[in-house]
Amino acid sequence: MAWRQEVFAAALAAAVAVSGCRGMRHARSDDAEAALESPPAEAAAPAAESAPAAKPAVEPAAGADVSQGAFRIKRGDTVSIMLMGIPEAQNQHVDIVDENGEIRLPYVDRLKAADLTTSELEARIREAYVMGGIYRNISVTVNVPERGIYVSGEVLHPGRLPLIPGTTVLKAVAAAGGFSEFANRRSVKLIRGNETIVVNCKRAEKDPSLDPPLLPDDQVKVERSVF
């Protein structure tokens, strides 16, 4: 009787084991099918790159061309214009910018010249001739006579000096040989038309923002010190 119970128990255990294996196979099969049916997960989007910090803009000096550092043409200036690549023998023209800021040229109407640099006026003249159908191709060169400033008073070499873009009061004094031993460096006059600006050059030597840039025909007058 006992041996029958042992045989029955062994058979029951085997049946349970076989059933468990089938259950695991079914579970694995179901998992595999679910994996095939489910769509693949989307890849995570890459992190957005941070935009580079904007650089502060640098403002150009008043009356200057950023690309060439050239002064702008003003009313009353004499301009010399050379026209090249055209059949006419007379290809050089000299004109004075009138009170309206305009000049005259052959075959074209009045052209605005004031407040332009020489390179900007060259482009405007070329456009007027080509777009107007007068010439198919033309090269233009514009020149303005040298502009100057005047330095007087207590400097070593007073007189007229050529004006280079970027010249300031201190640079003009240095170009005139520097201050004399009697110069009043705390009261240097910048005379511009009817306006007079007093510049303290002692302070300007330490703070360049107090050293104003010069314009054509400016006068720098260095006073004599009373002490």
Account of the 3D structure:
The chain is α+β, with helices and mostly antiparallel strands. Among the domains are: 78-143, wza like domain (wza like fold, 2-Layer Sandwich); 148-224, Outer membrane lipoprotein wza fold like, CATH 3.10.560. Helices cover 27% and strands 25% of the residues. It contains four helices and ten strands. Strands 7-6-10-8-9 form a five-stranded mixed sheet. A three-stranded antiparallel sheet has the order 2-1-5, with helices on one face. Mean pLDDT is 76; it is low at 1-5 and 7-69.
- Specify Rg, calculated over alpha carbons: 43 Å
Share of residues in strands: 25-35%
Sheet bearing the most strands, described?
5 strands, mixed
Helix share bin: 25-40%
